[in-house]
Amino acid sequence: MNLPPLVQTFVLHFGEMGSRWGINRTVGQIYALLFLSKEPLNAEDIVERLGVSRSNVSMGLKELQAWNLVRLQHKPGDRRDYFATPDDIWQIVRTLVEERKKREIDPTMTLLREVLMQEPASAEERHAQERMREMHDLFELLTGWYADVQRLDTERLVQLLTLGSKVQKILEMKDRLFVVPGSKKSRRDDAKDR
Amino acid sequence: MNLPPLVQTFVLHFGEMGSRWGINRTVGQIYALLFLSKEPLNAEDIVERLGVSRSNVSMGLKELQAWNLVRLQHKPGDRRDYFATPDDIWQIVRTLVEERKKREIDPTMTLLREVLMQEPASAEERHAQERMREMHDLFELLTGWYADVQRLDTERLVQLLTLGSKVQKILEMKDRLFVVPGSKKSRRDDAKDR
DNA sequence: CTATGTTTTCAGAAATTTCTGAAATTACGG
DNA sequence: CCGTAATTTCAGAAATTTCTGAAAACATAG
């Protein structure tokens, strides 16, 4: 491995981290390297810096492309493929969440919907279905929230995250201002309706 | 594998899903089984239903306990250990996020802080550090948000998630109401400050 | 303390994943 | 077309992870 020490530390860490996610070491290292690199790199650059085989790099890049995590670029007068990560780190977050949702949540939701259609044949199955219903509803709530905030531009998203639960305060304030005093319908019920 | 069909479908799916996370098939299956079960199960129950070895179940349960994902229980007059997942699915989500943060985000933050302290020895290292700074700040924002909403009780959390980006509307309304007209300091700046 | 039921540990077998080198394919310039 | 550079594919080697059975450790009742 042929890298400035500071870069190497990070690359090695991401390689290890990769295993905790479903991703292998080399893929993690390639990604870390591209993320830190100012210039796009070609496959041979990566081979030299990481000290792994050319074919391994080829497969790793293919996987990263399948995840939409790297962009393929070309330099004029050079027919090699160059790879880079988006400059905007928020774009990376969005892609990551999107792809993980596609691979993990969506298939699970499909399965849950299927199983929830079936008629339970016993008390045990009935209870199992109830649990699956809970999970289904939870995922629906979370993906709904995600679909919603995902549409925000980054500036507003950051604003929202910065506020955190302070939003709560503002909601309470809104209530005090706008709920007709003595009205039966509180905001809490509002939230449950939807 | 000795399970009602409906349960089996789910258990198998979670087994496969486990690999996408850093978790192995058996651990995923054990967890799915406990999640769906009305009654707590002991190790031998799990062996029978999943058709895996006793030692494998022992190791799987140990791992799930390390993740705080199962509770150990006892029945009067029975000295075997019984295992169950929390009834409250939101508790499960909280534990999962907490544990993943502990295992993935926290060590990465430590590493980033260390590397960001060092003096860059080249333009390449300087750029790499800038990128790491971006990642560091991103994680800080996200974990800050998390620490904040994590404190909310479930009802309020659900309320917040249900609103999604509609919170935005309320924020805008708040602005219109409370920003002194003609003031130099907009809400946007506010958000950036912290 | 002993007998028995229960859980844990762990060395090696089995399965799976990762990685490589060689060959095949693709893509382009001339 | 042809030749060359670049990339991909893929069979098998290497490494890693998972799983098992046997033994050890632990715990409780008697």
From TrEMBL, chains A, B:
Cross-referenced Gene3D superfamilies: Winged helix-like DNA-binding domain superfamily/Winged helix DNA-binding domain (1.10.10.10)
InterPro entries (alphabetical): ArsR-like_HTH (IPR011991), HTH-GbsR_regulator (IPR052362), HTH_MarR-typ (IPR000835), MJ1563 (IPR026282), WH-like_DNA-bd_sf (IPR036388), WH_DNA-bd_sf (IPR036390)
Domain spans labelled HTH marR-type: 22-80
Alphabetized UniProt keyword annotations: DNA-binding, Transcription, Transcription regulation
Pfam families attached to this UniProt entry: MarR_2 (PF12802)
Coiled-coil portions: none
Family: Belongs to the GbsR family.
Name listed for the protein in its UniProt record: HTH-type transcriptional regulator
